[in-house]
Amino acid sequence: MDGRVALLVENLRVRLGSKEVLGGVSFEVERGETIVVLGPNGVGKSTLLKAIHGIVPYEGRVKAAGNTSMIPQSDMLLPWLTIERNIALPLIASGLPEKEAVEKARIVAKRLGLTEYLDYYPKQVSGGTRRKTSIARALAVNASILLLDEPFTGLDINAVMELQRILWEIKKSGATLVLVSHQIAEAAEIAEKALILKGRPARVAWLADLKGLRYEERISILRDAVWKTLSGR
Amino acid sequence: MEAASGATRYSGFSGVAGYIVIGITGLTAWWLLSRAYPLIVPSPLESISYLAENAGLAARDMANTLVNTVLGFTAALILAVALGGAAAFSGRAKPVVDSLNVVVQSVSALVWAIAFLLVFGFTSRLSSVGVAAATAFPIILSAVLKGFEVARSEYGELIAMFRIRPRWAFTHILIPAVVPFLVASSRSALGAALRISVVAEAFGGFGGVGYRLFQFYELHVYEGFLAWSLLLVVLMVALDRLVLARLEGWSRRWMEG
Ligand SMILES: Nc1ncnc2c1ncn2[C@@H]1O[C@H](COP(=O)(O)OP(=O)(O)OP(=O)(O)O)[C@@H](O)[C@H]1O
Ligand SMILES: [Mg+2]
User: Quick one: which of B138, B59, B69 has its CA closest to B102?
Assistant: First the structure.
């Protein structure tokens, strides 16, 4: 694998039950790049992220230069733990002393503007705060590749803008992002690459490099591609 | 704080009001019955003064029944949690525990009562304890099994996603997720155990509320019979409201918005 490549996916096939969900998906992402994954509901976007993360069985090849960390489509917070404990959960579970884990969780929480909510329970805070908690939990585990499953869904305009800023910051720190999203405008802003999944089983229907293009150009290319690949289905 | 004051208002006022309405209705019906059938049904006043005269005996009977029930319930709780946990943790234990669950659901309390009397003898408190345990056990076990099932479907993906070790996930994620199921079922299990262990006492000779109720029946002391029955109801309601309902609220405290 080329030294610049952070993630290589080759002929990835996934079967869930009796259904073939992914039927040979290939792409690669360079270090520090962001790829946005588009596609209709149920096509297999979440499944793709889970296969990359190694929590569903697959055939084919996934090579990741570094650990992956996942921000799931539903936040999956533990309702009986505070925001702070939820962020620290994977760290504590992995055997890090509780004090260190909590300290680390607080640092990440501060970066995401969660400090004032640390002692609240998930049911007591807004959906945006829960989403940020889920992101903080994934960031706290120190992975170089982040898998984000529709992080913008269900957030209001302010929360989306804030999340956008957070993603930029994560990007600047050198992380590689795989971003599943239906929000073309938000995706176009940070993505260097884009792919569209289509069909049953799903394959890559379109894959493009957006590097060096202006924001307006990226948006129009993405809109065009989505319209052409997905409208006549 | 908003939610807390709302909850207090509900259980504090509406809760008590409900019991007052039921209490007044019950006493009125009782009084009317005692007027209609004065030879069989003693009046509330007669029963309550009988209770006051025999307060020591009543307290001893209550204590005996309560101890039998709580001991049996505790044994059932430990056993059900251990077996439910084993089923959740080990694929090999699961079918055995699942089958056991179905079997114990279908054994009558009377069968347990007679069986334990035969095993432990007529004067042992253990027969009543055993019946309480046998009554509480299936209720708690099925709730624990259900709880683990729900916890697994709810948090299984999270556990995989952060590669959390099975043992840690079991003690820190699955067990806490089961606690509300456990507490909710304990509430009904303890109630059922109290109601049924009294039946076992009636068959035996150890004592307790059930033994005394049967004695009152045989000796035609109907005011005693009614007084002890009333006391049992009051005891159960107090136990539920003052201990179990609070415990359940506590176990679900993070559910409030
Ligand atoms: N455990 C499973 N067993 C069988 N089929 C499954 C399982 N999980 C998901 N699927 C199926 O796999 C397909 C892909 O699901 P996936 O969640 O990856 O889609 P998605 O593209 O993320 O959809 P959405 O946009 O709604 O999030 C769906 O048709 C779904 O029904
Ligand atoms: Mg999805």
Answer: B138
